[in-house]
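Record format v2
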Amino acid sequence: MDLKGQQLCEALATYLILFSAIVAFLFGIGTQSLRNLFCVYGAGVGLTCLVIIPNWPFYNRNPMKWLPRSLKKD
Amino acid sequence: MHSATYRLNAVATMAFTGLLALCLAVSVTELAHKANPEASLKMHGVHHFKPLGGNDEAVLSFQMKGDLSSCFSWNTKQLFAYIKIVYETERHVRNEVTVWDKVMTSTEEARIEEAFLSKYALVDNGSDLRGRDVNLTLAWNVMPYIGALYFGEKVFAAKMPSEYMSDGRQG
Amino acid sequence: MGIFKEIVDELRGMSVRQLVSQVLSLGLIVSSAFMIWKCLILATGSESPVVVVLSGSMEPGFYRGDILFLYNGRKEISTGDIPVFNLPGRDIPIVHRILRLHEKSEASFDPEGARVDILTKGDNNYKDDRVLYDPGQLWIHEDNLLGRAVGYLPYAGMATIIMNDYPAIKFLLIGFLGLLVVTSKD
């Protein structure tokens, strides 16, 4: 993963978990069911794992520009 | 976020923190819950009342009508309802003896209208029960799925019979 | 097994100074945890402010593996409260409910003895706890109590139950975590 991709990854992780927690809480209160709350949260965490852990192509759109290999020996 | 292991660790930590925050939020919602319990309880009769091994023992029957269903919130796992008899004697400044209890896991079970015999005998640590003024206390313990345990109670006055008896007279 | 090789290489590559620094970091973490625990003990007045439910005698309210938060302060103890107590000679704490209590008046109070006599019973048990008390013992007293349950968290103590049932896991886990902390780069 390139640097910009890692930043994107971290931001996605934080916001996805936060969003899952908030939606889960509101849905749970709305349906008055704790089971729903934790199911929605669990689904949200699962989704986050799916988005964050594998090295998707959209994390690699700004590859590092390494300097050309020097041919001089020093 | 440079390796998959690191990312897994990051998600796990964040998810766990979120879980703790959710648990805290759920327990706080209990503060906004308003309960409206109704109950009436009185001593109906005496099955027997006699000295036993140096202590007074009484088995009473009660008439109770109650609706504790409003004590249930989304976070309530069960209501443990119990009746305790509270009184004072010369030897003991405070006595509290449970004579009946019931586990209520749903709002249907929380509505009661019946006469019943006490489940546990009223046994004094002494023999000072004759003619005594006592408090019949209907109490309940709200046991949540997550968070703080709550107690509530309603108190009713009653009087123990002035003589020992063993013939199941109605009071 | 690749991760063990990583850890061993890591340890070999460190200078003595780096190793000492990492061990000190580990020590800091352990002492912070210890300090927080001691503060909890002071705040709740209980020797063991967080306990894991070990038996099924309070079902369906409490199951094995649940966690209880205890409080042992000045608030008057009452029938219906849920005390966690130790019986003399046994170090497994018991979580039951107070069935009866009798508090001695000034007149009959013997300073050598206890002020309050307590009889307990588990919600899910048929009989009261006199079968558990020592032979001839009819009551327990306030100094047997670790505290009364005021808060509850389900499943959170499952790790303790697993580690009690399979003690080898305890040593493996602590050893592994210790190694990980010592060899981590931050």
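Residues 34-159 of chain B form a domain with the Immunoglobulin-like fold (CATH 2.60.40).
Chain B has two domains: 1-32, 34-159.
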